[in-house]
Sequence to fold (121 residues):
Amino acid sequence: MRYSLLVLLLFGLLMACQNEEDINPDGTIETNAQLVNNLPVDGCEWHFMINHGSHTTFYLPTKATAFRVETIIATLPKTGGAITSRVRIRYRPTSQKGQVQCGFGRIAEYDEIEIIEIRER
Fold:
């Protein structure tokens, strides 16, 4: 009985720590992400942060799909500081890199993703 309870507890803990990332048959990935603009506090302009448990990955939308992201950005309050919005995205990885402006004149280079769908969570 104790062994079963321990296994069940460990399994539940493992499932709680995972980011619900689904890989679809069409090659798209659906996952939770954060849409972030940290430029006002010396971070980087709008980009996605996806937590994979032990590491975080940063992405930019392709130029062709950035309009989908801009519809979400337009609804966010303008606070003058860092802005973060929790979103659910369905995307397709690309082999392209994009650049984003960061604080102190730095330019960061992140992988670009094709945004198929985005919604606030």
Notes: The two ends are 39 Å apart (CA to CA). The CA atoms of residues 26 and 81 lie 38 Å apart. Helices lie at 2-17, 66-73. The chain is about 20% helix and 45% strand.
